[in-house]
Write the structure tokens for this entry.
Amino acid sequence: MSWFTKVKKPLAAISLRKKRIPEGVWVKCDGCKEIIYTPELERNFRVCLKCGFHHRLPARGRVALLTDSGTFEERDRHLHPGDPLRFKDSKRYRDRIADAQKKTGNEDAIVAGTALLDGRPVEVAALDFDYMGGSMGSVVGEKITRAADRARLSRRPLIVASCSGGARMQEGILSLMQMAKTSAALGELAEARVPYISVLADPTSGGVTASFAMLGDVIMAEPDALICFAGPRVIEQTIGEKLPAGFQRSEFLLKHGFVDMVVPRLEMKKTISKLLGHLCGAQACAQPENDAPAHRA
Amino acid sequence: MAKRGTGTLTNLDFEEPIAEIESKIGELRELSRRDGIDTTKEIRQLHKKVNKLRRETFSKLTPWQRARLARHPLRPYTLDYVCYMTEDFIEQHGDRCFADGVSIVGGFCRLDGRTVMLIGQQKGRTTKEKIERNFGMTHPEGYRKALRLMKLAEKFGRPVITMMDTPGAYPGVGAEERGQSEAIARNLMEMSRLEVPVISVVIGEGGSGGALALGVGNRVMMMENAIYSVISPEGCAAILWKSVDKIEEAAEALRLTAKDLLTLGVIDEIVKEPTGGAHKNPKIAASILRRVLRRNLDELCKLKPDELVAQRRAKFRSIGEFFGY
């Protein structure tokens, strides 16, 4: 009998010691499966230090990545969703919202505001995949639209970083209409000739891809990001066969002509900065007035 | 021009009792014609009965029943409306990039004497036609053709009428390779700033982004039994309920009927259908729609190009529900 008690004691001690290590200090890389020290990964904007795999970056991380530190002024922060359809599936939409708000600390799946990028004022918005899959409901649509309006009126370039499963089913047709609303606002921005850069991260799909994400003057994608209209599973079900490797990934879209460039996360800010230098610099040749009727951007 | 198939006349389950009485009436008529028996009284009674039953059934359709009416195999399609309510339709083809995109048809035609560009999604009636039209599921080239025709209409100052009737944009390898999302996004942006009147009508199935890509109008309307939704009830049930048996619940929850969309402020008007649905009398359905279109065109044609664009932008700008600041 005494053997067993002796065996039990050290075991309990080990498990106790294990508990004292805060959770999540070490994570396994989704790319190379190596164990990484979490603070190190966070400091590197969630790009694996060993293999360069791009883990999903929450909205505020994205803003920090793309803007000069301490310059971000958040706008429309307290815009929050309603429940226009009183939607309930296995769970009430209201409860899903509450959970997502608790999880992310954001009112909805987007963070937007004004900031400096290498000293240049820009409007920036980033979607948050941790909040109901970054889905677009009325709040996301409204905040993108307001960001586009602010960009147009202030003539600050607009940068939108997408990371989303598409339109939010729980707001039904109102979510769908956000596609038209955001696209219309970007049409106005284009007419005012204010640059719009669209950044696509893994994943960008459905109604988000089929609206503002694909309307950038310049579209840049992170490496190996899934970018699609219909998701691979839906397509596989429709055609009844497996899809080839790399299908609907950034490099595939580059090859087929639907993104301008594939840019690693840590070079994103630098690349955008250079681009804005070309787009916002002094005019090189005569440009028609903005209110000239004939020409449209 | 599309001919309505006469082959397999199908009835939905809730149409069945009505169809039964109707066939009885037919039998009685046949009887009186052949044998000279007077059945006028019986026929009159049955007519009363069937009208009452039809009114009852169709006054309390569930959303899922409406969805099935919207997809009824005999429901009039774009080319049927072209047939019944326009003259001098000249179909144009091709997106000038890749292909024709045959699940969308379009061309100039005359509606009550006024030239309009009519563009609509077209499902097939026969099996062969269905396959040719890809079951009304549009490829990028279809959307690009539609946009080309809209720009053509704008160039010559003609109003645009679009008809939406699709299960959705086609989810396939080629469609993705050729930029399905880019095609839809481009249409949304360009449609929002067309300098001519645009009227969009959901005539059957308004399947998500695949329908919306033709749906950015100064006026958006739905036929009484049409549906318009962010996702099909099947898709929604599979994703959120994880069970295809929950289609009826999903159809209910999505609020996809014309009445719902009017309440939500997404559409401007519901176009009445003959009792029993547009397929019971496509001619009447088309004449009702023609009158509605004419009234709206009369109003919109009074606006200047910039007013049209501003009205359309403001309309979509105001859609959505949110709180706070």
